């Protein structure tokens, strides 16, 4: 691919390496960053290029080191108090300058609140386009990123290509890839960590964070066991909560239950919610719509409790219990507590 497309003003051959944004807040790294780093390795293996971790924040040397221990070939760090706490303008300005200066061919960003917030501020000025909410990635022999994401309400998986521009940018849904192992024995040469100039200007810092209110902090994408409720529980969460406690599970929900306001949106599973891959997933009063299944079909053992024997959820379950949740859940909870 050496052509310069008419009017694009760029030469695609000038662009190389796969960048993964490592999202951290006050030293805590969002798990999706490590998931992307692991998946990014598959792309760089095919392309024969470097996997570069990009870290923006304050006091981030440890994060940079961990990125190398998790497989990054190089790390670029922009370390400055201006990046803590997160604000879209300084992040966007810094990221944009680094992209313009160093020209990566692919940029992967976690589809978190932060990633979704600033990715557009990088993609638009670069005329790059941005494929959002991606669930599968690959590259072809020409280095063209195949970014796949659900479309038409989840009925199809669309492959989005960015043929004429670089970088090829995507925000990736958390939880769809598995993070790799950290290898603390990796030898780190100084020359693989590059501190870049901080280019944030006063006009990028006009907003100020006055207060930070932390809501429901549960991260169901990390849960090993999940008890999920749907519209069928009609607002009566108690039987599911007790079952979750007996199982040591996190509570989650279908969109219908979230829309009713019974449970926080951060716990929604599915196409417009989270993708989860627990070892155990108990679906209570959930019909099994495709948009829900999409978020939980990587689970280990699935148990469905539903009073309709024809509910589609049973097609995706390893064990099905046909009955009223208000009777079935307490019986299961009692049995578990007796053990
Ligand atoms: P319902 O479909 O109403 O099912 C309720 C189930 O409870 C039924 O099967 C019923 O038999 C059972 N039930 C009733 N009473 C009892 C009882 N007493 N005991 C046991 N079982 C009982 N949905 C998601 O979940 N996540 C998403 O991310 C998502 N994204 C979407 C994106 C788009 C673009 C669209 C169009 C839709 C999306 N949806 C999503 C909505 C999805 O299509 C379904 O409407 C939703 O999943 C239904 O939720 P539910 O199964 O809880 O409710």
TrEMBL record:
Pfam families: ETF, ETF_alpha. One of its GO terms (molecular function) is flavin adenine dinucleotide binding. Keywords: Electron transport, FAD, Flavoprotein, Transport. GO terms for biological process: fatty acid beta-oxidation using acyl-CoA dehydrogenase. The keyword DNA-binding does not apply. InterPro entries: DHS-like_NAD/FAD-binding_dom, ETF_a/b_N, ETF_a/FixB, ETF_alpha_N, ETF_asu_C, ETF_asu_C_CS, Rossmann-like_a/b/a_fold. The keyword Electron transport applies. Residues 18-202 form the Electron transfer flavoprotein alpha/beta-subunit N-terminal domain. Belongs to the ETF alpha-subunit/FixB family. This is Electron transfer flavoprotein subunit alpha/FixB family protein. The lineage of its organism: Archaea, Methanobacteriati, Methanobacteriota, Stenosarchaea group, Halobacteria.
């Amino acid at each position: 691919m050496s052509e310069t497309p008419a009017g694009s003003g760029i030469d695609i051959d000038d662009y190389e390496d796969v960048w993964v944004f490592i999202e951290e807040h006050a030293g805590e790294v969002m798990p999706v960053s490590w998931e992307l780093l692991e998946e990014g390795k598959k792309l760089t293996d095919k392309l024969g290029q470097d996997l570069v971790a990009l870290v923006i924040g304050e006091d981030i040397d440890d994060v940079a080191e961990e990125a190398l221990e998790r497989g990054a070939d190089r790390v670029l760090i922009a370390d400055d108090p201006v990046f803590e706490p997160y604000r879209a303008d300084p992040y966007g300005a810094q990221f944009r300058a680094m992209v313009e200066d160093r020209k990566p061919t692919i940029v992967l960003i976690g589809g978190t609140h932060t990633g979704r917030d600033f990715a557009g501020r990088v993609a638009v000025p670069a005329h790059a386009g941005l494929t959002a909410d991606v669930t599968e990635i690959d590259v072809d022999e020409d280095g063209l990123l195949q970014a796949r994401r659900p479309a038409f309400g989840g009925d199809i998986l669309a492959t989005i290509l960015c043929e004429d521009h670089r970088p090829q940018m995507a925000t990736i849904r958390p939880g769809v890839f598995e993070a790799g192992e950290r290898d603390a024995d990796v030898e780190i040469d100084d020359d693989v960590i590059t501190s870049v100039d901080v280019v944030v200007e006063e006009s990028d810092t006009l907003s100020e964070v006055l207060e930070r209110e932390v809501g429901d902090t549960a991260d169901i994408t990390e849960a090993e066991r999940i008890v999920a409720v749907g519209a069928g529980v009609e607002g009566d969460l108690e039987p599911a909560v007790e079952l979750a406690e007996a199982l040591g599970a996190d509570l989650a929900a279908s969109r219908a239950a979230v829309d009713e306001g019974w449970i926080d949106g951060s716990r929604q599973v599915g196409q417009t919610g989270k993708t989860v891959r627990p070892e155990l997933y108990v679906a209570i009063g959930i019909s099994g719509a495709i948009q829900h299944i999409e978020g939980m079909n990587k689970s280990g053992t699935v148990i469905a409790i539903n009073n309709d024997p024809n509910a589609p959820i049973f097609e995706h379950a390893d064990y099905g219990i046909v009955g009223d949740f208000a009777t079935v859940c307490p019986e299961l909870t009692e049995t578990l507590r007796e053990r």
